[in-house]
């Protein structure tokens, strides 16, 4: 794949592109600048679909994908066939995702992450990028491929992009098009559950701050202090403040309970939401965090509405400071800047924050990791923007 002297970025997708993908492409375009190159891959990877999953009905919209990619700033769309990526059939040797690949999505979809890692490794070799951009909506995918890149020394910097949502909160996904009107209403419970956990934590923290401001005065003084803060029901609030001041709040348990209450209600809707998992996990290894945990965590949910399986997540901070949904995870080896909706992979060996077109996105300067000379992808007839047919 010819390249100039600038930085090359890749955005890996399975097609059926939407605004989430466009955000990734725009972010990549902004990061590499006018001299750089943005490559978008479109490949529906059969290795990451299990028996009975939606491989055959997964939307293929290459012409529309090329148009969207071009409008968002892509220079090349690389859309190889299955025979080009896996000549001679499925590969006999694959990359194993290890323990992290057996949890949550890996438990629900055995072998899924092995298929993801295998195709991402191949596409990284074929496109030879300096930077790779992937969405946080697929948080576990982002984590396992980041780990693969670090463990296997891929010379590429990973950039994670925050989830893009519709106005009602539903995370953008290529699978959203499968939802009927009533199903879509039920599906809103996924994001509602995550936001309920976030808001409950914010309320708990506000109570903690109020308890600290009131202090340990005798009851009449406390009521007076609360009245000075504008409380209409000082006695009732004094009781709540005393409760909050009595000991440390267990944020993880509060977050789980708030989210589960929303999901339990959604299970009784028509059509119902069928929960696969709700998990509050450590971003570094995706193991469940204990109730006494402090630091950043990912609250992840997966569920079916009708025949459509959806996932979502939000990042929360527990302990010192104000618990909140964060725009970027600063730990590990992942730079975080949007959501691919349904991307294939992420990888990285350098830690930094990505510059994004949006002033609200987390950004900071970062140095690229020098990549190896680009490999030559399979040669096939090309469409607009270099889209292979």
Largest sheet: 6 strands, parallel
For the termini, the CA-CA separation is: 16 Å
- Beta-strand portion reads 5-15%
How are strands sequenced across the largest beta sheet?
3-2-1-4-5-9
Total beta-strand segments? 9
Share in helix: 25-40%
One letter per element, helices H and strands E, the order comes to: EHEHEHHHEHEHHHHEEEE
- Count of separate DSSP helical elements: 10
> What is Rg?
23 Å
- Give the overall shape, derived from the CA principal axes: globular
From the structure above, extract its key features.
389 residues; alpha/beta; single chain; globular; three-stranded antiparallel beta sheet; 9 strands; six-stranded parallel beta sheet
Topology at a glance:
Blueprint: E1 8-13, H1 19-32, E2 37-42, H2 62-72, E3 76-78, H3 82-85, H4 105-108, H5 112-127, E4 131-135, H6 139-151, E5 157-161, H7 181-214, H8 219-228, H9 234-245, H10 251-266, E6 273-281, E7 295-305, E8 308-318, E9 335-336
Parallel strand pairs: 1-2, 1-4, 2-3, 4-5, 5-9
Antiparallel strand pairs: 6-7, 7-8
């Amino acid at each position: 794949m010819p390249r100039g002297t600038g930085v090359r970025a890749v955005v890996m997708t399975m097609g059926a592109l939407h605004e989430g993908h466009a955000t990734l492409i725009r972010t990549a375009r902004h990061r590499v600048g006018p001299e750089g190159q943005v490559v978008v891959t479109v490949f529906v990877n059969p290795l990451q679909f299990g028996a009975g999953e939606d491989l055959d009905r997964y939307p293929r919209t290459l012409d529309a994908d090329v148009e969207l990619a071009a409008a968002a700033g892509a220079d090349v769309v690389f859309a190889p066939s299955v025979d080009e990526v896996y000549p001679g059939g499925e590969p006999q040797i694959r990359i194993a995702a290890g323990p992290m690949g057996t949890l949550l999505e890996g438990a629900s979809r055995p072998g899924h992450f092995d298929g993801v890692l295998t195709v991402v490794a191949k596409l990284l070799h074929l496109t030879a990028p300096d930077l790779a951009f992937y969405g946080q909506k697929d948080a576990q995918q982002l984590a396992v491929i980041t780990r693969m890149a670090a463990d296997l020394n891929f010379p590429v910097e990973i950039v994670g992009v925050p989830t893009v949502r519709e106005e009602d909160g539903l995370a953008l996904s290529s699978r959203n098009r499968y939802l009927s009107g009533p199903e879509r209403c039920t599906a809103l419970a996924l994001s509602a559950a995550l936001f309920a956990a976030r808001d409950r934590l914010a309320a708990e923290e506000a109570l903690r701050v109020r308890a600290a401001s009131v202090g340990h005065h005798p009851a009449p003084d406390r009521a007076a202090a609360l009245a000075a803060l504008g409380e209409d029901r000082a006695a009732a609030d004094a009781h709540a403040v005393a409760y909050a001041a009595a000991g440390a709040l267990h944020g993880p348990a509060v977050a789980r309970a708030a989210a589960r209450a929303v999901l339990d209600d959604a299970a009784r809707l028509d059509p119902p939401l069928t929960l696969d998992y709700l998990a509050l996990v450590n971003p570094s290894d995706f193991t469940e965090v204990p109730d006494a945990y402090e630091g950043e965590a990912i609250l992840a949910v997966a569920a079916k509405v009708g025949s459509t399986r959806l996932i979502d997540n939000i990042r929360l901070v527990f302990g010192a400071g104000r618990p909140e949904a964060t725009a970027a995870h600063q730990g590990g080896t992942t730079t975080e800047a949007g959501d691919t909706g349904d991307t294939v992979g992420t990888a990285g060996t350098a830690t930094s924050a990505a510059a994004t077109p949006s002033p609200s996105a987390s950004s900071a300067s970062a140095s690229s990791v020098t990549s190896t000379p680009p490999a030559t992808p399979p040669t096939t007839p090309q469409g607009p923007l270099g889209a292979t047919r």
